[in-house]
Amino acid sequence: MNTSNNTILITGGSAGIGFAIAKQLTSLNNHVIITGRDEQRLQKAAAQLANTTAIVADVSDPKDVDRLVKTLYKDFPKLNIVINNAGKAFAYDLITEGANGFEKAGEEMLTNYLSIIRLNEKLLPLLRRQQQAAIVNVSSIVSIVPNHMIATYSDSKAALHSYSLSLRHALRQTPVRVFELQPPLVNTEFSAGIGGAKGIPASQVADDLVKALSTDNFEIRVGNTEDVYHLYLSSPDAAFQPA
Questions:
Q1: Which of these, 22, 73, 92, 161, is most buried using a 10 Å CB contact count?
Q2: Coil, helix or strand for 197?
Q3: Which residues are annotated as catalytic?
């Protein structure tokens, strides 16, 4: 699909992968709408980008989502790309007493999976009006090969992976294409607690996404994740190496 002259929503666009994607796409003559929970941080990010609108919204809050959707239908009727990037992760040992895994998993599943279904469902009628449109679900390689220290985060991304496959199939006869972005560890503030400093730059993720959009490569495995994926196919035990 075309990678310029689009109207694009990026959730969680004020930092990390979302900001890097926004920066790349605004440089290609797209209008980008970024959302986030922190207004000050969001406005600071928008000030560094051209042709960008910032809207404060928490994708896990139904009222915020309803307000966001109403604004998009009213003010951005040409919206044709939605990048579901907002996420939440906790690093903890599953068997540690008092880890509150149930509560952590609930927050991760809501933000990383259920909220995406809700937003996509509300925006699909608008996307289907466009000549060409796309949904990009930002997943992770842990959707295929889980990491035991972020086990429930991995679970939420596995659910998102499965949903992305089904949504792509459901929309196959429509103008809406469904992409899944599967980065490895990325050096962002979001991943600082799990060794993010060792990860790839967020700009590399953004570059690979733009290339994939232009070539209709729906499964986007960034960096070494293609190798990890094929290792998993040949030897799941070898791929799952707890750190």
A1: 22
A2: helix
A3: 153
